[in-house]
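Ticket 4471: requesting a sanity check on a complex prediction with uridine-5'-diphosphate. Repro inputs:
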Amino acid sequence: MKTIAEGYTKVILEAENPGQIIMRFKDTASAYHAIKRATIAGKGAYANRISARLFGLLADAGVENHFIKLLSDNEQLCQKTDVLPLRVIVRNIAAGSIVRRFGIEEGTAFKTPVYEMNYKSAQLDDPFMNSHMAVAMGFVSYDEMEHISRLAHRVNEVLIKVFADCGINLIDFKLEFGRTADGRLIVADEISPDTCRLWDKMSGQRLDKDRFRRDMGDIIEAYREVWKRVCGESDENK
Ligand code: UDP
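Returned structure tokens:
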């Protein structure tokens, strides 16, 4: 299988069907633009399965996305899309960069979700971008920007409930969007403890990549816990 692209945590491979791709999740963790890196056995499989389950639940809720099916422990089949060079961050509770940038106390609940957008460029430190700029740079139209906002809002509603039902607070998360061959924008990439902040409702324990970023304890234990709670009996690869 030919490699289309390789990042720190995933490899994108060609699939038999040219309209599809295979995402292979690696056992690597990276933070701070890969200044901090590590190999963590088993992490790829948990991220793959958790992401597959969440995308499946999003599809059930009517949120169109690129996920097709799990192929193996570390691989999933997805629809091929042209991924936009921007990230949408959705925040329900203040944590991470917004705490530093705005001086908000970590753990402060926002009255309404905060939506942010970044331009994907490690070289430029992922600068802040707004919808006018995304349109001006030719990435999307205003109508598409509205569609992205609606999708982000809906994903947040669905995921808040999915996680709440298993005793987890969804603090924030990152979304990426891909353009299909016929021009529709759908949710792409992954949604996992690598791309979300997840705090245990009872203990406040971090169940996400902050364990790695901030040396807050065993990473695999946290990812396994999220997998157990989110995938439970539904995981065909158990
Ligand atoms: N995030 C991500 N990829 C990125 C940037 C952020 O998955 O390149 C996720 C991150 O894991 C967190 C949320 O988006 O769940 C908000 O991240 P933040 O802006 O607070 O940045 P960070 O603290 O990760 O530097």
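Notes from triage: The longest helix spans residues 142-164. Leaving this open until the requester confirms.
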